[in-house]
Structure formats: structure tokens, C-alpha cells
Write a structure and sequence with these properties.
The complex is a heterodimer of chains A (about 140) and B (about 140).
Chain A lengths: L1 H28 L3 H31 L4 H27 L12 H9 L12 H6 L6
Helix pairs in contact in A: 1-2, 2-3
Chain B lengths: L5 H24 L7 H19 L1 H7 L4 H21 L9 E6 L3 E6 L1 H24 L3
Antiparallel strand pairs in B: 1-2
Helix pairs in contact in B: 1-2, 2-3, 2-5, 4-5
Classes of the chains: A mainly alpha (about 140), B mainly alpha (about 140).
């Protein structure tokens, strides 16, 4: 009976690791903050959930031990990781982080200019090239 | 500028319940499993700091009417008091005792005086951590 537990647990943990790898590749390859947060939040959440579920099923089948902490961890990650991505994206938008090059539509912009009453002057705009070309401060 | 924090606040309401439950679990488990007063107190303080972050300091202060400086002092007093109780009974300072009792719901349970010491540690940790965060966040 312990063989099937190992197979199911290992398969789920492998799926979780593959999803985490896809998420890391997406973080490197995608152009701006918003698409990167899309990759980082969705697929790494699913990867962590698969790994935790594999661990839970492994201990449940092979040892007969039902870990309530793993259930709690699954629920907690599922609850909080998307909210963290939402808050990061929102604060990035409020600090005028530019969208990617090929963006054709920004539906939030009209609402944002109307309701939040923030002036989008060019001084406030974060210039990515300027940050990258600036030398590091040395003592 | 009025901010719209509905998502953060409603998730915080659920998450704080989970964090507080888990910190009580850690606190009660400390005798036989990983956990104990320090980590239980720290995770309780983390839940309180999460409340401060999402609801603002003034609103939380209206609802949790607790002086965290006094809470830290009470914790240290409880911890020293359990040590002094052993002295009263003629044993060395901080001697522990444990026994088995038949409680109505739990059945036969091991109750140790180390739990009271841990309560003192947890209260001191909660009071100190929250007090540090609060005094950093105020501009005075």
C-alpha cells in the first residue's frame, strides 16, 4: 500500500515543481510588471498547491497521518497569493510604472484620471532607462 | 484621496482568524511538538500587525483597547510569578511540576506549570513586538 502513496505524492510534487519552473521562466521572459505578476501569481500558486497536496496525500496513504496544517497551508496560500499580486500590481500602477511596448488598451486609465484625481505629469513617470544607467551610490 | 481597499480588508478578515487559530495551536503544542510561547506570541503579533496594515492604526486602536506596554509587563510578571511559586513551596527557583487530570471534554490531560510560564513568555513577546511596530510607525 505504501507504493501507491509514493507514486501519487511524487507525481503531484513533480507537477508542482514543473509549474514553479514555468512560473520562473515567465518571470524572466515577460516584458513588464503586470504580465510578470500574472505569471508569478497564477502558476506558482498552482505549483505550491500541487506540492502541498502531494505531501498531504503521501503522508495520508503511506503513514495514515492526516496533517491539518497542510490543509490550512493550502487554503492560506490559495487565499493570500492572488491578493499579494493584486496589491503589487495596484501599487505599481499608482506609481506610473509603464505598460509593455505592445499594449493597445488601458481601460483603467480613464477611471483613474477621473476618480483618483492624480496628475500624470512627466516628472512623476518612472524612467526605467534612467534607473538602469544610474551608477550605484558608493561611499 | 480615499482609497478603495475592499479586497485587502475582506481577505484580512479571513486571514487573521486563520493566523490567530494557528498561533494558539502553536502555543498549545509547544510541550510535545515544535512550537511554544515565543513563536506563538510572534505569530499573534503578526496577525495584529496585519490588522494595522490593512485597517489603519486609529481604527484598530479603537477596537483593540489594550496597552501593549502593560501587556509585556504582565507577561514578565506571570513568568517570574511561576518561578516564585516554586520558591514558596520550598523548591529551587523555576522548578516545574506536571500531573494528569481528568478534564470533562479532553479526558486525561497532562497539565504542566510550564504552560503558565509559556503564557508569560507569549504575552511578553506580543507586547514587545507590537509595541516596537507601533512606536516606529508614529512620528513622535
Amino acid at each position: 500500500m505504501s507504493g501507491s502513496g509514493e507514486v501519487i505524492g511524487a507525481a503531484l510534487i513533480l507537477i508542482g515543481a514543473v509549474f514553479s519552473l514555468i512560473s520562473a521562466i515567465g518571470n524572466v521572459r515577460l516584458p513588464d510588471v503586470y504580465t510578470r505578476s500574472h505569471a508569478a501569481s497564477k502558476s506558482s500558486t498552482l505549483g505550491v498547491l500541487c506540492a502541498l497536496l502531494g505531501t498531504l496525500l503521501y503522508f495520508l496513504i503511506s503513514d495514515g497521518y492526516f496533517s491539518i496544517r497542510l490543509i490550512l497551508g493550502i487554503f492560506f496560500v490559495f487565499l493570500t497569493a492572488p491578493v499579494a499580486a493584486h496589491m503589487i500590481c495596484r501599487s505599481a500602477y499608482r506609481h506610473h510604472v509603464p505598460l509593455a511596448e505592445g499594449t493597445v488598451q488601458d481601460e483603467l486609465k480613464d477611471y483613474y484620471m477621473e476618480n483618483e484625481n492624480m496628475e500624470l505629469d512627466s516628472e512623476d513617470q518612472i524612467d526605467v532607462t534612467e534607473i538602469e544607467s544610474k551608477p550605484l551610490a558608493t561611499d | 484621496m480615499k482609497q478603495n481597499d475592499v479586497i485587502l480588508q475582506s481577505v484580512t478578515r479571513v486571514a487573521v482568524v486563520i493566523i490567530l487559530t494557528f498561533s494558539i495551536y502553536l502555543f498549545m503544542n509547544g510541550h510535545h511538538h515544535p512550537g511554544g510561547g515565543f513563536i506563538g506570541g510572534l505569530s499573534t503579533a503578526a496577525a495584529i500587525v496585519l490588522l494595522y496594515l490593512s485597517f489603519g492604526i486609529e481604527k484598530v486602536r479603537e477596537n483593540i483597547r489594550m496597552d501593549f506596554k502593560k501587556l509585556a509587563a504582565i507577561g514578565v510578571l506571570i513568568a517570574v510569578g511561576t518561578g516564585m511559586t516554586a520558591v514558596v513551596f520550598g523548591k529551587p527557583f523555576l522548578t516545574q511540576a506536571f500531573d494528569y487530570f481528568n478534564l470533562p471534554i479532553f479526558g486525561e490531560t497532562e497539565l504542566a506549570s510550564a504552560l503558565i510560564f509559556d503564557t508569560g513568555v507569549a504575552l511578553a513577546v506580543i507586547g514587545t513586538a507590537v509595541n516596537i511596530i507601533l512606536s516606529i510607525s508614529e512620528d513622535r
